[in-house]
């Protein structure tokens, strides 16, 4: 098969990287296209994935529309030259549009129910939409569900083993109490009008008073007093750090889920709720989600209590139960891409409907 993978966010690199290697090892011809967004290109380079950057970064919703148009136009040109069997992506706006124009089958993965714009622009054109079983929404006959989360495509123990050297490299000791904190920019199309912490400085001060060392990763400029807490190692080593952290506190759902599947309790502070975050909270007790008007105060109280408690074995037991219930999602990616490719007619003037 000829397969195009489109990458528009750092998390997409992690999600697809093992599937790309597996598909290439099976003899398929992979073409990876990306746009610059935070550390996306850096992650692709560090993963050793051949790729072409089609568009730059966006810094507002207005510029995002222009960047997306540029990305789709350039992707269409490349796809006409490649003549792909399958185009796959997370969200999949560009993938679904371009696939429909070049006679390829589009396989879209998604887990964000409140991303109305992306769903409206992608789902009607997509051939296959793959979602976790906990996804709160019915996409119709094109939907395929699986028992897992995006984060288990790269943090399942069959795919990832944390490197303890990250502690020394980050200037930490094994006995240190570590909190990883994430601040979001709130400039995605589905984040308009939403919010998280009232005062990040207060959060760091309270956690440090409780005996924690706080390492911050942020999409926005930090207040001067917090610059000393900024995480400065390579971006692909954050998962090693999360695995050894005692708690994650943040506004980003992806990192909250990453922490949870690694067995690190996550305090998620966001006015939005998500199906996979709710399941990690309600079913496994690995995420504590706060999205009401008092979310800042309540989340900080929870984070401090986790730090002061210092109990790690309960989180490991909860993670063990999660892993017993859920699957390696890279296997799902490979299966659905190969299934979509095998369903394409050799003449491929139009794609044959996927039986899923």
Describe this structure in words.
There is one protein chain. The protein has 13 helices and twelve strands. The chain is of the alpha/beta class. It folds into two domains: 2-156 and 328-342, Glycogen Phosphorylase B (Rossmann fold); 165-325, Rossmann fold, CATH 3.40.50. Helix 1 packs parallel to helix 2 and helix 3 packs parallel to helix 4.
Entry summary:
By secondary structure, the protein is an alpha/beta fold. 40% of the residues lie in helices and 17% in strands. It folds into 2 domains: 2-156 and 328-342, Rossmann fold, CATH 3.40.50.2000; 165-325, Glycogen Phosphorylase B (Rossmann fold), CATH 3.40.50.
List keywords for this structure.
alpha/beta; globular; disordered C terminus; 2 domains; single chain; Rossmann fold; 40% helix; 356 residues
Number of separate domains = 2
Order of helices and strands: EHEHEHEHEHEEHEHEHEHEHEHHH
Low-confidence stretches: 186-194, 347-356
Mean pLDDT equals: 91
CATH architecture of the largest domain: 3-Layer(aba) Sandwich
CATH class of the largest domain: Alpha Beta
Strand % is 15-25%
Strands, count = 12
Task: Please state the structural category.
Answer: alpha/beta
Largest sheet descriptor: 7 strands, parallel
CATH third-tier fold name of the largest domain? Rossmann fold
List the helices and strands and how they pair.
Layout: E1 2-7, H1 10-25, E2 29-35, H2 40-46, E3 52-55, H3 61-82, E4 86-90, H4 93-102, E5 105-109, H5 116-122, E6 128-132, E7 143-146, H6 165-169, E8 178-183, H7 200-209, E9 213-218, H8 238-244, E10 247-250, H9 253-261, E11 266-269, H10 275-282, E12 287-290, H11 295-309, H12 313-325, H13 329-342
Parallel strand pairs: 1-2, 1-4, 2-3, 4-5, 5-6, 6-7, 8-9, 8-10, 10-11, 11-12
Helix pairs in contact: 1-2, 1-13, 3-4, 4-5
């Amino acid at each position: 098969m000829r397969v195009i993978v489109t990458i528009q966010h750092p998390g997409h690199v992690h999600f697809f990287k093992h599937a790309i290697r597996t598909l290439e090892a099976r003899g398929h011809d992979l073409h990876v296209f990306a746009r610059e967004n935070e550390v996306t290109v850096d992650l692709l380079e560090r993963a050793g994935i051949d790729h072409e950057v089609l568009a730059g970064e966006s810094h507002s919703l207005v510029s995002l529309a222009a960047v997306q148009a540029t990305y789709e136009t350039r992707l269409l040109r490349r796809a006409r030259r490649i003549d792909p069997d399958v185009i796959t992506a997370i969200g999949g706006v560009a993938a679904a549009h371009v696939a429909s124009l070049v006679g390829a089958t589009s396989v879209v993965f998604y887990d964000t129910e409140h991303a109305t714009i992306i769903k409206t622009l992608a789902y009607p054109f997509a051939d296959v939409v793959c979602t976790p079983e906990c996804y709160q929404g019915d996409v119709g006959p094109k939907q395929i569900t699986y028992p897992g989360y995006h984060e288990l495509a790269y943090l399942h123990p069959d795919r990832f083993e944390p490197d303890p050297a990250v502690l020394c490299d980050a200037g930490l000791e094994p006995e240190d109490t570590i909190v990883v904190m994430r601040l979001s920019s709130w400039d995605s199309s589905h984040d308009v009008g939403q919010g998280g912490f009232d005062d990040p400085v207060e959060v760091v001060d309270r956690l440090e008073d409780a005996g924690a060392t706080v390492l911050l990763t942020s999409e926005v400029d930090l207040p001067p007093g917090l610059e000393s807490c900024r995480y400065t190692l390579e971006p692909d080593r954050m998962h090693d750090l999360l695995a050894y952290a005692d708690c994650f506190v943040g506004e980003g759902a992806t990192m909250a889920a990453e922490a949870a599947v690694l067995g690190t309790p996550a305090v998620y502070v966001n006015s939005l709720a998500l199906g996979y975050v709710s399941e990690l909270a309600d079913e496994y007790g690995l995420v504590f989600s706060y999205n009401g008007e008092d979310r800042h105060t309540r989340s900080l109280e929870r984070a401090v209590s986790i730090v002061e408690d210092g109990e790690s074995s309960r989180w490991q037991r909860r993670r063990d139960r999660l892993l017993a219930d859920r699957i390696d999602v890279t296997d799902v990616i490979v299966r659905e891409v190969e299934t979509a490719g095998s369903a394409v007619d050799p003449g491929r003037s139009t794609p044959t409907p996927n039986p899923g």
